[in-house]
Design a protein that fits this description.
Layout (H helix, E strand, L loop, with lengths): L19 E3 L2 E4 L7 E10 L1 E2 L2 E2 L7 E10 L2 E8 L3 H5 L16 H5 L11 E5 L2 E5 L6 E3 L6 E4 L17 E2 L6 E7 L5 E7 L5 E8 L10 E2 L3 E6 L2 E3 L2 H5 L9 E3 L5 E7 L6 E5 L4 E9 L5 E7 L5 H10 L12 E7 L5 E5 L5 E6 L11 E7 L8 E6 L5 E5 L5 E2 L3 E4 L9 E8 L6 E7 L9 E4 L9 E6 L1
Antiparallel strand pairs: 1-7, 2-34, 3-6, 3-35, 4-5, 6-7, 8-9, 9-10, 10-11, 12-13, 13-14, 14-15, 16-17, 17-20, 18-19, 20-21, 22-23, 23-24, 24-25, 26-27, 27-28, 28-29, 30-32, 31-32, 32-33, 33-34
């Protein structure tokens, strides 16, 4: 295969080749206590055999591995060998969230989106898994990134096996919590816990009023917290019959409101609260106050244009429009009597991809880190840190024409109390059609990178990832 050459200035431009090399050009000094592996994933290609995929959600998943050791940094990338990746060609592509198969209604009717396993990668209990919203995970070799196969956790995942893309790992117990949306025989969310032996346990379920989109949740000491927004399949028959793409049949209907569900981790009764409509995708973290109030941090988007406006920016991905990064970091409080209120945390800062020091998962966290746009509707070009104790804001902005992706936290074992560590992000160098790994001190962002590692090629922006300490 050869690298795509069209529109290399786009952060989403393809990387169709697979690489395995030691990074030769490192500027600055990699901290001595930063040793481990950074995994990132996203759509590595958005065109197959002359077929332009209609949405970035539909691109074949490609995992990148940055191994940080005493000798420097090693890079490796591999495509997840899903059914779609191995079969897609000039003659055939699968249906996606925003991609219709050639052949019209007949070719698309009754077909669910192909599992392209491109949204997140998580390491847990000795395993590494690539994740996608509406299907089973794929198990990968943590060292070689070889695809071992689809994972059903010894049969615990039934039917299509939806296992969502944003699991949470409790910092105290090491247990992994996640959920999946099931549509048959009725729409519902089913919750799971995976223990340190690798066994998957079913927790509670709660019904969805109608087929809805729920991308993320948060975890507290006692609950899984869901904010299910009214992003719904408003025209399900058109989607089912293949008359329109899945995303084309989705709508944001604020009159339906948002349903907040508190699912007990011990399997007790689910508490559901109705409130005014939110429009969000990512929940960062949550915790419980001594009086029982649940606090959850989210990135909330303006509902102007609803799903259609937000989704358009992900379809028209070739430029540097960053409309999808225009969210507002907020703290939502859910009192014991069901009152819901929210407060802004980073006013005037359009952002997405919130992250924390995961040593504080399911507890009050000292700081939040986001990828932000320095101008309205601009590309994400700044990594911002918000210190919750002092309210101070720090940031690192890259050069004009460059962009950054999600900042992943790597903990410094010597700074556990303060929550200090490093932020790892991939910077796209714009017209240079290259990328680099950027390492920032989480408590000194404005001082700039402590080290950068120049890749030999462009790396697509990607979605999410994880850092695993050595």
């Amino acid at each position: 295969m050869t690298d795509a050459v069209a529109d290399q200035a786009s952060p989403w431009a393809a990387l169709t080749t697979e690489h395995d090399y030691r990074v030769r050009e490192i500027s600055g000094r990699v901290p001595e206590r930063l040793r481990g592996v950074l995994y990132r994933i996203g759509p590595g290609r958005l065109e197959v055999g002359g077929h332009r995929l209609g949405h970035i959600f539909d691109g074949d998943g490609m995992v990148s591995r940055f191994a940080i050791d005493d000798d420097g940094i090693g890079f490796r990338n591999r495509y997840v060998r899903t059914h779609h990746y191995t079969k897609a060609s000039k003659e055939w592509i699968g249906r996606g969230v925003g991609t219709q198969r050639p052949g019209g209604m007949v070719a698309n009717m009754f077909r669910i989106p192909a599992n392209v396993s491109n949204t997140n990668v998580v390491a847990h209990a000795g395993g590494l898994f690539s994740l996608w919203e509406a299907g089973r995970p794929y198990r990968l070799d943590p060292e070689t990134l070889e695809t071992i196969g689809r994972e059903d956790f010894d049969g615990a995942l039934k039917l299509i096996g939806a296992f969502s893309a944003h699991p949470k790992i409790d910092a105290r117990t090491g247990d992994l919590f996640n959920f999946g949306i099931e549509m048959f025989p009725r729409p519902m969310i089913r919750c799971y816990r995976r223990d340190l032996t690798g066994a998957l346990h079913r927790l509670g379920t709660f019904p969805l009023a109608r087929p809805s989109f729920c991308h993320d949740f948060a975890l507290t000491e006692h609950h899984l917290v869901f904010l299910v927004d009214p992003i719904v399949v408003g025209r399900p028959l058109r989607a089912l019959l293949g008359l329109d793409s899945i995303d084309g049949c989705m709508e944001f209907k604020p009159e339906l409101g948002t349903r907040i569900a508190l699912v007990p981790r011990d399997g007790g009764k689910v508490r559901v609260i109705e409130t005014d409509a939110f429009f969000h995708f990512h929940a960062n973290n949550a915790y419980e106050e001594p009086d029982g109030e649940v606090v959850v941090e989210i990135v909330r988007h303006r509902p102007v244009g609803g799903w259609a406006g937000w989704n358009r920016s992900l379809r028209e991905r070739d430029g540097l429009d960053g409309s999808a990064f225009g969210g507002q970091l907020e703290r939502v409080r859910i009192s014991v009597n069901g009152r819901v209120c929210s407060e802004p945390l980073l006013e005037g800062v359009g952002c997405e991809f919130p992250q924390i020091d995961h040593r504080f998962e399911a507890a009050r966290h000292p700081a939040t880190y986001v990828a932000a746009a320095s101008v309205t509707a601009g590309a994400p070009d700044t990594i911002v840190a918000l210190d919750h104790a002092s309210g101070s804001i720090d940031g690192h902005r890259v050069d004009d024409g460059h962009s950054v992706c999600e900042p992943l936290f790597a903990a410094d074992p010597d700074r556990a109390e303060s929550g200090g560590g490093w932020l790892l992000s991939v910077e796209h160098l714009g017209a240079q059609a290259r990328s680099r790994l950027v390492i920032l001190d989480s408590e000194r962002l404005s001082e700039g990178p402590v080290a950068t590692a120049e890749l030999e090629h462009h790396l697509p922006m990607g979605f999410h990832g994880t850092y695993v300490p050595a």
